[in-house]
Design brief:
globular, Rossmann fold, alpha/beta, 14 helices, six-stranded parallel beta sheet
Length: about 375
């Protein structure tokens, strides 16, 4: 089996998944990945994966986008893949390249069934463009049952063509970074900052948290929308540590190692790579019961689940973990085991290859039909 994987985003995810796929001796993997996504993770590249790096132009650079799409189409065709696997997609590629590659079986990973509330970056690509790729795909992969249900209900596609496969392990843990750092009573909110992430509810919970654990600090790391309204909502600014910036892998490792609890107060979600990173560092998670988060957080085993938009419930869960070191360690050990087993690239790769075979099956049937028609033999395969 020869597989072409195409990624415009999700660099670490793509690199690890490609490596997991290539573990099978009968699978050849060619990974097309944008330069900005590939460069930080070149050290993760499997020697069994052929990497093709391309430059992704700015969104409105029409001519450069056309050149990029045409170059990718030519290279993908030249590779002669049995199946193409795309992560979410890209507006220009979805509109221009997919019609030219429609004879190649397409598997699409749908990271989000709908663009999240307030996510201005993702909203640059209209929802109908993303849906168009979903309709063209023969098989789809999602990371949580809730995402599958929403996708099937919203688009009316065959549920048998939507497969729930765990998010491949991410979080490039360098054991040499922060190994000697002591855990502190830090509550970490990490990642992109948009309305759907529910940061305002963590800020509302802060007085309730610090009333019980005075030494606690709320650590916010990431970028996104205008941060000033969040600053103004802080009742006790001195209890916050804010890194409103791009966070390097080294800084990320430091923040996760020093934090006691990782919090996802989302009001809407599909899944979250933040949970995978937290688990890799052996950290318990407090998350809301929205989207696919309950599928990733085993309540009272790897973390605690609370209702969305409920600052008091969020505060109670965080305080419980901050005050109980034994419980934190118990949850942390379970979370590390969960991610290392369920989300291991080799395991996810095996599950994904099974989806590729499903996507290729119609092509095999058509080839059999053509051969039988040419020879005049009767069709005996009931699947044709």
């Amino acid at each position: 089996m020869k597989v072409v994987c195409v990624g415009f985003d999700f660099g670490e995810y793509c690199m690890r998944l490609a490596g997991g796929l290539a573990e099978a001796p009968d699978t050849e993997v060619v990974l097309f990945l944008s330069r900005e996504e590939a460069t930080p993770y070149l050290h993760l590249l499997s020697p069994r994966v052929e990497l093709r790096i391309f430059d992704k132009p700015r969104f409105r650079q029409a001519w450069q986008q056309l050149k990029m799409v045409w170059s990718l189409v030519r290279q993908i065709r030249a590779a002669k893949p049995d199946v193409m696997h795309m992560q979410l997609g890209h507006m220009w590629f979805n509109l221009l390249a997919l019609p030219l590659l429609q004879d190649i079986p397409l598997v699409l990973t749908v990271h989000d069934s709908l663009i999240h509330v307030g996510d201005a970056a993702s909203a640059k690509t209209p929802q109908w463009v993303l849906d168009r790729a979903c309709f063209k795909a023969r098989q789809r992969i999602v990371h949580a049952p809730q995402v599958k249900d929403l996708l099937v209900q919203r688009l009316g596609i065959d549920p048998a063509t939507v497969h729930v496969i765990p998010y491949v392990i991410v979080g490039d843990v360098d054991v040499s970074v922060g190994e000697d750092m002591q855990e502190e009573p830090w509550v970490l909110f990490f990642g992109r900052i948009w309305e759907y992430k529910g940061l305002r509810y963590l800020i509302e919970a802060e007085p309730l948290i610090t009333a019980e654990v005075p030494e606690a600090k709320i650590v916010i790391a990431g970028t996104g929308e205008d941060f000033e309204p969040y600053r103004q909502a802080m009742k006790h600014p001195e209890n916050f540590i804010v890194h409103y910036e791009y966070v390097s892998d080294e800084k990320r490792a430091e923040l996760f190692r020093r934090s006691s609890v990782v919090v996802l107060p989302y009001i809407e979600a599909s899944q979250s790579f933040v949970i995978s990173i937290a688990y890799r560092f052996g950290k318990p998670v407090v998350a809301t019961t929205v989207g696919g988060l309950p599928a990733m957080v085993d309540d009272e085993r790897t973390g605690l689940l609370v209702p969305p938009r409920d600052a008091p419930a969020l505060a109670r869960a965080i305080v419980m973990l901050l005050q109980d070191e034994g419980l934190r360690k118990e949850f942390g050990a379970a979370s590390m085991q969960k991610v290392n087993v369920e989300c291991a690239p080799e395991r996810v790769g095996r599950q994904t290859r099974a989806v590729y075979l499903e996507a290729m099956r119609p092509c095999v049937s058509r080839a059999v039909l053509a051969e039988q028609t040419a020879t005049g033999n009767e069709v005996s395969n009931p699947n044709v």
